[in-house]
Amino acid sequence: MRAQSPLQAQAPPPGIEPGELPKVWITGGPNCLEVPAWQIHEYNPTLYILRESGCTNYEKPFLYLFFGHDRALLVDTGAGQSDAAVVVQGLIGKWLKREKRASIALVVAHSHGHGDHVAGDKGFAGMPDTTLVPATVEAVQQAFGIGNWPEQAGAIDLGGRVLDVIGVPGHQPAAAAYYDRQTGILLTGDNLYPGRLYISDFPVYLASTQRLVKFTEGRAVAHILGCHIEQSSTPYVDYPIGTTYQPHEHSLELGRAHLLELLAGLEQMQSKPLKLALRDFTIFPTEPRPAIRKK
Whose CA, among 132, 145, 178, 195, lies 20 to 30 Å from 109? Predict the structure, then answer.
């Protein structure tokens, strides 16, 4: 039997649209005069990842813009003095010009309701052909057809492109994950990313993680993408809160194995939640006990 070439071995599953992630992201500094306020990365021609500069806000959140035939979907609007509306409108304008189209409707939704993910909402309010979904449980249910929150999944059809919407409270009550069937990308907001996973309601967060594990069974997961990078490229080491320049940060993308690792860590501590530093992220209950490291 002939061995596969590296390209064949890394080919995505059938039906999954491939894309590329950068080797490094712009963080902020060391000279903020030279750093753009936003980094825009084309994963592929219908998915764009935006990162707000640490020189603008130390949270450095990631935003995600998906294009379908009929609508585009933006997940999150940034932190601090976010001008995401201006940046996204400019990007959509360039996309329309390239695709030789006159217009496309925009839906603006969120991974959850914390301030560093909704700060740019005001810029989208009243914008023509734009639907802003507030970061509340009721609004998310209505927008995505979720009858029984959070157990039942909802969805949004952008026109030839469907994203599943899964309720994942526990970090914040209105937290939602988004699974893009076209690329196999799962957006997990602040529930799972390379950094400190703050848990405000442990039993609810555990149930949400179990829900994500069950949802991803039998589905292709190309990448798990969260909204921040706080972890450094050194295992178990993260950057302190407030760091703007992270020259040696962890990659943004995680995999389903990290989701399973998170669930295992939560299940082993469910009777006594505590802070637990793992290689690529830290489980961080609201009232953490002294950290221990996984051997």
Answer: 195
